[in-house]
Amino acid sequence: MQTVLPMLRSLRRSCRTRVVRVFGTCPAPRVVRASLPVAVLLAATGCERVVDVRVPDAPPRLVVEARLERVLDAVHGRQAITLTRSQPYFSRTAPEGAAGATVSVTEVETGRVVPFAAVAGAPGRYATDSLEITTGREYALRIEWNGERFEGRERALAVPRVDSLYFVERRSDVGPATGVRAAITFRDPAGVANWYIVDQFVNGVRLVMPDT
């Protein structure tokens, strides 16, 4: 498990859209007359129409993905921060990296400032090998980009150790199982308001799924 420090959060999408179902004008009820004068059948029909709400694209904004981590039993100083630009909600292209930023993290208690250097060949990616996270300390993020300054501050909290790791079938609401997924068990300390994020990696690639 890891000590995860979410420094600054931002939505990757700059706008929303939704599908609204409204009742349109329906045909008048049909009167069906039987050939024999025994009954008159009324068949009322209903209809609905799908309306796509178009939302104008908002100006691009800076998206910050900054997580400072301390891995239990494998503590290291390697940290990375990713900066991208927001994009239209239905865009099918990868977000553009925000290059040219100045990124640093300060250890609040000591005043030590650790600069993050741009990673060659990865626009918007900034990294350092010199920031070993200490549980209980406070860290301040500072970003300067396009004439603007962004700041965030958070304290590194401890996380419990993983007791066990196992695999369970991945089931859907309908149909058979759709494979397996990893699951873990651990003891959440009593009396402490904790929130956790669990990342899964397959062959070194982060697996992003609805239940992860």
Q: Count of helical segments?
A: 0
Mean pLDDT, to the nearest integer, reads: 77
Order of helices and strands: EEEEEEEEEEEEEEEE
Biggest sheet: strand arrangement: 1-6-7-10-9-8-11-12
Key terms:
212 residues; mainly beta; 16 strands; 8-stranded antiparallel sheet; two-stranded antiparallel ribbon; 43% strand
Task: Describe what you observe in this structure.
- The protein has no helices and 16 strands.
- It is mainly beta and 212 residues long.
- The protein has strands at 2-6, 19-22, 30-33, 40-43, 49-52, 62-71, 79-85, 102-107, 112-118, 125-128, 138-145, 148-155, 162-169, 180-186, 200-202, 205-207.
- The radius of gyration is 27 Å and the shape is globular.
- An 8-stranded antiparallel sheet has the order 1-6-7-10-9-8-11-12, with no helix packed on it. A two-stranded antiparallel ribbon has the order 2-5. It has a two-stranded antiparallel sheet with strand order 3-4.
- Helix content is 0%, strand content 43%.
- Strand 3 and strand 4 form a beta hairpin.
Summarize the structure.
The chain is mainly β. It has strands at 2-6, 19-22, 30-33, 40-43, 49-52, 62-71, 79-85, 102-107, 112-118, 125-128, 138-145, 148-155, 162-169, 180-186, 200-202, 205-207.
